[in-house]
Write a structure and sequence with these properties.
Blueprint: H1 6-44, H2 47-75, H3 81-91, H4 101-113, H5 118-140, H6 144-154, H7 157-176, H8 180-193, H9 205-230, H10 236-254, H11 266-277, H12 282-316
Helix pairs in contact: 1-12, 2-3, 2-5, 2-9, 2-12, 3-4, 3-12, 4-5, 5-7, 5-9, 5-10, 6-7, 6-11, 9-10, 9-12, 10-11, 11-12
Length: 341
């Protein structure tokens, strides 16, 4: 029988090719645009610091993947790390396209090939993004005052003040949405809007706390990534703590800037005002945030490449949405021979 609506398959293939080309373009364009601005600062940094900072960025991405795995496993079925890593890390390259939707689209397609429904991959990804924002806002709380000081040094007081006060206002709502019955109700409504079956079971504290713990670990390692770049200006444990705060503020609030690829520009500005509020000169803070962006871009590509090389081939050839054996593989019922009468 001829396949139904072949034009739809061709359209999906074309969209995949365009999305892949767009991802490559924005990664290259982002790197090229940043290079002229950060070259002088880049040369001033030592190679051991740059390599250590890059490794910390990779670890931060890995913890985010583990947070995603914990949540998706709770609303669908548990995923092994080698299955979750390519879905999350390769799919996350979609964030380099304008609009946050592309990362979800790629993750949904890869998740479907691994046996997870598209809707549950989407819901899990959105939930982890929300929990990541909540974790970041909580970690940002002690540094609101420093951020407001940094706003004055930036020369863009209106935008900076709006961003900082937005984090203050969002915090109680974000924390409230982490309450399992409320979160289950929100997800249930979302599944109804998507015209998908409801969740098999309510969301409990365990996946929420597990995802939040992994998100916090991700912010700590991302802060370590920043501190390795700015430690000459922010030495010691206080400098590391301030760097964690700066990254938490930047990553949590820039999530809402969906028109920019991966929050490009907004994240750097927010991180710079946080570092300026901690005492780093504005020009230096801005240059270092651009170096951070470049290293995170390299980390994104490296992590996705390794994860894809390890697990994507298996996902691409997956044909069954469930690991359950086919009916022909199930044990046959005992035959009733005359001797069993």
């Amino acid at each position: 029988m001829a396949p139904a609506k072949p034009w739809r398959a061709r359209l999906i293939t074309a969209v995949r090719i365009l999305a892949a080309a767009g991802i490559v373009y924005f990664i290259v364009a982002t790197t090229v645009r940043q290079w002229s601005d950060v070259a002088a600062t880049f040369r001033a940094l030592s190679w051991p610091s740059l390599i250590a900072s890059l490794l910390a960025a990779v670890v931060s991405l890995w913890t985010t993947m583990m947070a995603w795995r914990a949540m998706v496993g709770s609303i669908d079925h548990p995923l092994r790390v080698r299955d979750a890593a390519p879905i999350m890390l390769v799919g996350s390259l979609g964030k380099y396209l304008p609009g946050s939707v592309w990362a979800y689209v790629v993750q949904m397609e890869l998740g479907r090939r691994a046996g997870v429904s598209r809707s549950k991959v989407f819901i899990g990804s959105v939930l982890v993004s929300g929990l990541g924002v909540t974790s970041g806002l909580i970690l940002t709380t002690p540094g609101f005052g420093a951020a407001l000081d940094g706003v004055k040094a930036s020369g863009h007081e209106v935008f900076g003040s709006v961003a900082v006060w937005a984090s203050v206002i969002l915090l109680p709502f974000a924390v409230a949405c982490c309450y399992p019955p409320l979160l289950t109700w929100i997800v249930g409504r979302a599944m109804r809007v998507l015209r998908r079956p409801p969740l098999d079971r309510p969301i409990t504290w365990r996946p929420i706390l597990s995802s939040v713990a992994w998100c916090v670990a991700g912010y700590v390692t991302a802060g370590l990534h920043v501190w390795l770049l700015v430690r000459s200006h922010l030495p010691g444990l206080s400098g590391l703590t301030g760097s964690v705060f700066a990254m938490a503020l930047a990553m949590s609030i820039s999530t809402f800037v969906i028109v920019a690829p991966s929050g490009l520009g907004a994240r750097e500005f927010l991180m710079a005002i946080a570092l300026a509020g901690l005492g780093v000169p504005w020009a230096t803070a801005w240059a270092l945030t651009l170096v951070s962006r470049l290293l995170f871009t390299v980390a994104d590509v490296a992590a996705a490449g390794v994860a894809g090389a390890v697990g994507l081939r298996r996902i691409r050839h997956a044909t069954s949405p469930s690991p359950a054996p086919a009916p022909s593989q199930a044990p046959a019922p005992p035959s009733q021979s005359p001797s069993q009468s």
